[in-house]
Amino acid sequence: MSFCKTVGGKLVEIDNYWEFQVLSRMARNRRFPNFWIGITDMYSEGAWQKATTQGRQSYFNWYGSEPNSHGGYENCVEVKARRGMKWNDRACHIRWRFVCEK
């Protein structure tokens, strides 16, 4: 997230299905295996919101039984290419690729 700030942006925040389809296509074309998006529940467990603006998150694309907050500390969202671009909650310290937006 700090890199995005240095270039005048933020982690991409997904507002709807169509926006996510565009992002998914870009990620597949660049062969991203997993990548971060700007959604978190670090401010309130289970209350998923936009990471930068802290606005309400209304669109979700969770995989199976996600989010599961495994271990009680999965507060960030990764997109998993091998799971059909579905979302998984994950510990925020994992080093994945990420997508910024302005």
Automatic annotation (TrEMBL):
Pfam families: Lectin_C. SUPFAM superfamilies: C-type lectin-like. Keywords: Disulfide bond, Lectin, Secreted, Signal. It is found in: Secreted. InterPro entries: C-type_lectin-like, C-type_lectin-like/link_sf, C-type_lectin_CS, CLec_Tetranectin-domain, CTDL_fold. Residues 1-101 form the C-type lectin domain. Gene3D superfamilies: Mannose-Binding Protein A, subunit A. One of its GO terms (cellular component) is extracellular space. One of its GO terms (molecular function) is growth factor activity. Its main location: secreted. PANTHER family: C-TYPE LECTIN DOMAIN FAMILY 11 MEMBER A, TETRANECTIN-RELATED. This is C-type lectin domain-containing protein. It comes from Mytilus coruscus (Sea mussel).
